[in-house]
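Key result, reporting period 2: structure in, sequence out.
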């Protein structure tokens, strides 16, 4: 695992899966992770909610429209509503 207890990155997941499944190659594990992430992103983009029991929930979060000022020109502009992906970890994941 990485140095920080709170952070888990892709290489940590890959190395953990390599230890658990030594019969699989690194390339197979990488392709599997890519396929899972792509399917989650596609589902959330289509306004679906993706729940992985014991891990967490992925959903789309809308950010309200807002105005901003260009500091250089002092011009006021408006930015429409945008959407981002939101992740809420499960209680069991937070306890570990």
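The corresponding designed sequence is given below.
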């Amino acid at each position: 695992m990485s140095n920080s207890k709170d952070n888990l990155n892709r290489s940590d997941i890959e190395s953990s899966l390599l230890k658990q499944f030594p019969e699989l190659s690194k390339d197979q594990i990488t392709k599997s992770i890519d396929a899972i992430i792509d399917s989650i992103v596609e589902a959330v983009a289509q306004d679906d909610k993706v729940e992985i029991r014991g891990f967490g929930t992925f959903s789309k979060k809308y950010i309200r429209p807002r105005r901003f000022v260009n500091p250089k020109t002092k011009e006021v502009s408006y930015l429409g509503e945008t959407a981002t992906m939101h992740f809420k970890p499960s209680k069991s994941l937070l306890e570990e």
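The chain has three helices and five strands. The chain has two domains: 1-47, 49-96. This case is discussed further under Risks and Mitigation.
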